[in-house]
Amino acid sequence: MRPSGRQLNEMRAVSIETNVTKHAEGSCLIKMGDTHVLCTATLEERVPPFIKGSGLGWVTAEYGMLPRSTSSRMRREAAAGKQGGRTVEIQRLIGRALRAGVDRVALGERQITIDCDVIQADGGTRCASITGGWVALRLALNKLLKTGAITSDPLISPVAAISCGIYAGQPVLDLDYPEDSEAGVDGNFIMLGNKTLIEVQMSAEGSVFSRDQMNELMDLAEKGVEELAAAQLEATA
């Protein structure tokens, strides 16, 4: 039995509320169970120097956790004077995941920055950030299409991410914190809406796993991404 009482292949409740901030070109509040992330998209008519003049657009991301997003207060990274290694790794993951679903030629020489701020954490914050980040990106690009700034849709496919792992010897979908902290194997699966893989992060946490178990986790992840992609499309319809 999972601590939450969910079935092995059952996700937490997912909700996506759009246009939650006034100034961002695209925004949403995504909730995956008790993990809540505010995602905003900012459009700029410039690109980083390393691609200037290439005709290609750029999508990047920043990620952070609010001090009381966790059970005890976290010190703000700004107060420490630098970002932690986990933060840098996660925001790079979000950026490259979202770029995998973008036609950068169709985007043109402009940059969209996705900011993901974790309001409340209960496992799977990077997955929620990627999934919500795509929604914010979709909304920002809708505005470009509406104004005629771009003539073809740069988004190839939804991009979504879900965690899977082996908890108490059983493959489970969408780990919350009690499961994540005790899972023998933990993984994050990032995919396009058609289930094409973008990235898989898997690690054994005091246990090992077989090829058959890996295949079971992949099957669970595909189910999860399918549900998330449907929620993304419904939110942005």
TrEMBL record:
GO terms for biological process: rRNA 3'-end processing; rRNA catabolic process; tRNA processing. Phosphate binds at R86, G124, T125, R126. Residues 10-140, 158-224 form the Exoribonuclease phosphorolytic domain. Its EC number is 2.7.7.56. It catalyses: tRNA(n+1) + phosphate = tRNA(n) + a ribonucleoside 5'-diphosphate. One of its GO terms (molecular function) is tRNA nucleotidyltransferase activity. Phosphorolytic 3'-5' exoribonuclease that plays an important role in tRNA 3'-end maturation. Removes nucleotide residues following the 3'-CCA terminus of tRNAs; can also add nucleotides to the ends of RNA molecules by using nucleoside diphosphates as substrates, but this may not be physiologically important. Probably plays a role in initiation of 16S rRNA degradation (leading to ribosome degradation) during starvation. Belongs to the RNase PH family. HAMAP family: RNase_PH. Homohexameric ring arranged as a trimer of dimers. This is Ribonuclease PH. It comes from Cognatishimia maritima. The lineage of its organism: Bacteria, Pseudomonadati, Pseudomonadota, Alphaproteobacteria, Rhodobacterales. The gene is rph.
